[in-house]
């Protein structure tokens, strides 16, 4: 069966989310690394720097997980997998909280995956 246009759009939006979040992951990792190295070079208070680096590390891991989930949802949508449809709906609902871009794109995904008849039929 051919992939409906709405499902393709939803998949590509998931890929865009993954790429944008990956840029954030790389930025946070770079900030954590340069902050740690700078503190060691300057012989600053390593306890405070260590705590900040740990928080950045946890945040980086969480964002990396969201990169994987968005990429997996995009791939699965293009393969017309029902698990990917469910995952994309959950991620889109969570992305609605990211005002304004996440609200718009999340709403588009929810429309195509929940209300568009052609898309719903492709997964049944």
Q: Could you characterize the architecture of this molecule?
A:
There is one protein chain. By secondary structure, the chain is mainly α. The protein has one domain (5-117). It contains five helices and no strands. It has helices at residues 5-42, 46-78, 82-95, 101-115, 117-122. Helix 1 (5-42) runs antiparallel to helix 4 (101-115), helix 2 (46-78) crosses helix 3 (82-95) and helix 3 (82-95) runs antiparallel to helix 4.
What are the key terms here?
5 helices; mainly alpha
Structural topology:
Layout: H1 5-42, H2 46-78, H3 82-95, H4 101-115, H5 117-122
Helix pairs in contact: 1-2, 1-4, 2-3, 3-4
The residue-averaged pLDDT reads 88
Total discrete domains: 1
**Unreliable runs:** none
| Helical content class | over 70%
Topology as a string of helices (H) and strands (E): HHHHH
Straight-line distance between termini: 11 Å
The tally of helices reads 5
Helix and strand content put the structural class at: mainly alpha
**What is the count of β-strands?**
0
What is the CA-based Rg, rounded? Answer: 19 Å
Overall shape: it is elongated
**Main β-sheet description:** none
SS strand fraction: under 5%
